[in-house]
Design brief:
The protein is mainly α. The chain has nine helices and two strands; from the N terminus they run ααααααββααα. The longest helix has about 40 residues, at about 30-65.
């Protein structure tokens, strides 16, 4: 009932945030509309915690993308911009949105779906921070499949520094989960899930994206889906 009463204020908040994101050229109009829809479904499904995951991911991702932009321009693929498109929104928030929709349909599983959504956002945050900041602060870069040194910025190339930054990002999402639920039992699981999802992104980047079997958005979506699945497996075991 509380969620339903707050739906209108939250919708206004999301629309305002969407407008400001378009105005500041952080999102395209289509991406903003997609983000508002995802945000509403996430809120209606898993509540304020889910909305906080989305907001923190967007804020950290935006800052990380803008940081050192001049240096990264020479490494980015054509078409990669600070202004996000609808596909990029769905790639990162799509899994959490699907889980939130399931929570609306099957409210008795809300707690489990909330943890899984947190895991997906931990992965998305870890991936975004490690890729955007790893190229700036990393010293040595390796192909995650062959472990041979390669040029930074290539798909599937990782660094120790970038990996640690990604783990820190996953930790932020884990802390938000703790703050909203009061449960610390899944903190380490969510941090590990973020790391695992991020690493799976790198593996798919090196093995599939380089061969044009998957797009970057496809890799990002599948890695968050993988992270959600790993979260479910771990909370079932532990």
């Amino acid at each position: 009932m509380l969620i339903q009463r707050a739906a209108l204020p939250v919708a206004i908040l999301l629309l305002t945030a969407g407008y400001l994101s378009v105005y500041s050229r952080k999102l395209t109009v289509g991406a903003a509309m997609t983000g508002v829809l995802c945000g509403m479904l996430i809120f209606l499904g898993i509540g304020y915690a889910g909305l906080a995951f989305l907001a923190v991911f967007f804020l950290l991702g935006t800052l990380a993308t803008a940081w050192g932009r001049k240096t990264k321009v020479q490494l980015d693929k054509p078409g990669d911009t600070v202004q996000r498109k609808p596909g990029q929104v769905l790639a990162n928030a799509g899994t959490a949105t699907l889980l939130s929709f399931l929570a609306i349909v099957f409210p008795e599983y809300k707690e489990i779906l909330l943890v899984m959504a947190a895991g997906s956002f931990a992965s998305a945050t870890a991936d975004t921070l490690s890729s955007e900041l790893g190229v700036l602060f990393g010293r040595s870069f390796y192909n995650c499949l062959s472990w041979r040194k390669e040029k930074k910025g290539l798909d599937g190339v990782i660094s120790l520094e970038g990996t640690l930054i990604g783990i820190a990002g996953a930790g932020v999402i884990a802390l938000i989960y703790w703050l909203f639920t009061g449960s610390s039992g899944y903190l380490l699981i969510l941090v590990f899930t973020g790391f695992a999802g991020n690493f799976s992104d790198s593996v798919m980047g090196a093995g599939l994206e380089r061969r044009n079997f998957l797009s970057n958005d496809g890799v990002n979506f599948l890695s968050t889906l993988f992270a959600a699945g790993i979260t479910l497996l771990l909370i079932s075991v532990f």
